[in-house]
UniProtKB/TrEMBL annotation:
Binding site for Na(+): 80, 83, 87, 345, 474, 478
Organism: Cottoperca gobio
Residue ranges with Polar residues bias: 705-730
Protein name per its UniProtKB record: Transporter
Pfam annotation, one family: SNF
Repressor as UniProt keyword: no
Span list, region Disordered: 1-21, 683-730
Keyword annotations from UniProtKB, A to Z: Glycoprotein, Membrane, Metal-binding, Sodium, Symport, Transmembrane, Transmembrane helix, Transport
Amino acid sequence: MPKNTKVTQREHSNEPVTESVADLLSLEHPMDYKSSQMSMGLSPGSTAPVKALIPSPDPDAEDGRPAWNNKLEYILAQVGFSVGLGNVWRFPYLCQKNGGGAYLVPYFILLLLIGIPLFFLELAVGQRIRRGSIGVWNYVYPELGGIGVSSLMVCGFVGLYYNVIIGWSIFYFVQSFQYPLPWAECPFERNGSQAIMVPECEKSSATTYFWYRQTLNITSSIDDTGGLNWKMTLSLLVAWILVCLAVIKGIQSSGKVMYFSSLFPYVVLFCFLVRGLMLKGAVDGIAHMFTPKLEKMLEPQVWREAATQVFFALGLGFGGVIAFSSYNKRDNNCHFDAALVSTINFVTSILATLVVFAVLGFKANIMNEKCVVDNAEKILGFLSTGVLSKDLIPPHVNFSHLSTQDYTEMYGVIKTVKEDSFNQMGLDACLLEDELNKAVQGTGLAFIAFTEAMTHFPASPFWSVMFFFMLINLGLGSMIGTMTGITTPILDAFKIRKEILCVGCCIIAFLLGLLFVQRSGNYFVAMFDDYSAGLPLTVVVILENISVAWIYGTKRFMQDLEDMLGFRPYSFYYYMWRYVSPAILVVLIIATVIEMAISPAGYNAWVEAEGAERFHSYPPWALGMAYSLIVVAMLPLPIVFIVRHFNLISDGSNKLSVSYRKGMMKDISNLEEQDEQRFILGKNPSEAPSPMPAHRPYLGPGGTQEMTNTNYGTSTKTGYQNIGSPESEL
């Protein structure tokens, strides 16, 4: 390097070095803290990027980060991640439980108030900073860098048990290739010379028996592990192999998978909707679903559950949304993406609800007709024994073709005449409304209620194959987003081949997932579902909101969005991010804690002798395990804050990526060439105009004092302060 360059002059100078890395690269032209931009490539008050600061004409290509092949792949990835099993088996249940059509009102309101704004926020920060969850929040505010670690840990917890559900779906998918379906009828067992129905199945139902005994082979309590269930272990292994193959090449492989896994469920849902509407009783189910119970809207519980569903439906806080958006170009219209994906998610939930209640309406009619037949036989028995007089039976009633209306009329007459002894007769009212009011969700809906309804379909194996193949694809789309939320921040932090990382993660996850394929594994799935994600993710998202809206500043963030998108987002988002969304999240956290405090901690255990579920409280060790999931997921938040607040570890804000070092070397090389050229021409370098922006003092948060780094490697504690980081190459 020539000795007359400015760089070497600095090296041989005896003056103390007070500049940061960023100041050195900009020839000691610091930046005003108040007017600094999230893009770090904008001059104060300007609306266009300062291209002179970028050695490469394409900064997205310069940082070497992978990118989506096209916009469609990205949208399908976000849709596949947000639209999951919860849209099919959670949303319809909440609608049925919380007032039918009336539930859609609080859900839609909260979607506008917290869903879309926070989804937009995650898309924006991921796209601008181009890092995974850990890198993004380390960059925004290092002391809250634990946000990304907590997101990663929650992703790990959820991924462990979520893939078990995919394994269950794979098992049912394979079992569907036979006629009749194996859960269509109760099995028989030999008792001497006689063949009798299995008592456990007789006391429950064929589909319930197949789920609890043939599939899970479940124990009667969480204390009894029962050993590994080899069928479920093999299914889990297949599920992890599928996930590993989908994510092993990063977005290059997962993007291709999304073309099928995101679109195929919609084909199946539309097929089921058309077929369901042609079934007897489908209209009854849909009418029951959308009949609004307006009084339910006044109950706080309805709003809490609507907020929780909005929160998890969009995948907020998991890190998958940020990871996917980090592979976008910086000028991508993420505002449009947020509105589009949120709308698709909501419409999908409505579509799934229509399908579920069309099929459940058909099932309710089947079960109601069976109830009428069973109770008609009881009445005939009472008539033959003289308990009931034949005069009580209306003359137009024909027992060989007994309709629901005729039975209801006959039931009312008997109940009125035999008022004193009616309860001893054991007759049921057989009301269709009672069948429709039997709320089911989760595995109870997918593996019991829905499978039972499909046994009555013509060509039932075909519909069963389609249904469980749809569940596999829905789960796979969500798992790809979950795995991306885990692998992206690790790949950002460490130089490791993504293939090795993905295979290693899948192997470790499979081994840890053996907990869920024991005979008692279903109880642990329920535990992780209840405790591992709910409260930790809510805390993570409110800290995300606070770090951007209050620490970095909503006005500055809005200006950054204008620079990035080319237009200023609506002021609606300003008030949502700054006031409304944090307030709603605080209320949600308080409500969640109260709910956990007043609700008994336990699980529904399957009692073989009764052929039914019974609620059991968690034993002390299981209760400790449940609460430890919450503590472990949230522990990185205070730990990272403490160690960085007291400078126990570096926040990594001055670390330069390989691509940034290349850009720095280009700047230095260009500077040297200019100095040599001016020297040859006989001009003093100080007289030549500087290629860098004019001097701008770097002001601290107060905006009054210039901030300098007295130590070359020391970083300040202000949000978005790492000017020399790779994310600033904008």
